[in-house]
Amino acid sequence: MTLTPSAEPIHPPQLHDQAPEFQARTTMGMRALSDYRGQWLLFFSHPADFTPVCASEFIAFAHAADRFAALDCALLALSVDSLYSHLAWLRSIKMQFGVEIPFPVIEDPSMVIARSYGMIAPHAPDTALIRAVFVIDPIGVVRSILWYPMTTGRNIDELLRLVTALKTSDAHHVSTPAGWRPGDDVIMPPPQSAEGLYAPTGPGQDWYYRTGPLPTTPALKAKRA
Fold it and tell me: Which are the catalytic amino acids?
């Protein structure tokens, strides 16, 4: 695998940074981050092949693949194991559970990509900290980063909700409250003038916290919350 050359030292991306470019072998051929421009990407990693928590996650991601596709969000996995290890593991999942993994899995035995994303500390002796999720938007910007311990599987419904919320915020210039689901009220932008401070609001609402149904038309200019 390769990374895009840079004059700057590699450092883990933060929210709103450009995601580090790479090109690597996967279980579905060569893939580059730039291949996913124009759509959302859920880029997630796992510590090792043939591990039970990771197997449960891959099965769950496979079952939800159509739901991610409906959001125009691709799935891309990575671990530091070799391509042949990945292929053997996917075969085992298919044989044991009857589930075919429909997304590519990157091989990263040199840990170059994992380190560029901060999934592994520079001097870490193993890959114990590699269970990460990066949500990357259609222009290649990191919009969310989540970390999970080795013992805890990811909640796929929450990841779907997260991508949906990010897309909703971008399209309609709104924010989403705690526990928001599609169809729930959203948080409207605060007023931009003194006059707006005194506009009618619902019970329990104030100028800085106004909720209401999602606007029926997208905002003229998307805003990142």
Answer: 54
User: What is the C-alpha separation between 54 and 59, in angstroms, rounded?
Assistant: 9
Cα 121 to Cα 134: distance, rounded to the nearest angstrom:
16
User: Rounded CA gap, 132 and 115, in Å?
Assistant: 12
- The residues facing 184 across adjacent strands are none
- The Cα 138–Cα 140 span in angstroms is 6
User: Which contiguous run of DSSP H or E holds residue 162?
Assistant: helix 156-172
Q: List the structure tokens of 154.
A: 């990811």
**pLDDT at residue 18, as a whole number:** 96
Q: Which residues contact 212 (CB under 8 A, 6 or more apart)?
A: 185, 186, 188, 202
179 Cβ contact partners less than 8 Å away, ≥ 6 residues apart: none
- The parts of the chain modelled with pLDDT lower than 70 are 1-10, 121-129, 194-204, 219-225
- Name residue 64's amino acid: A
In which residue are the tokens 């996650």 written? 57
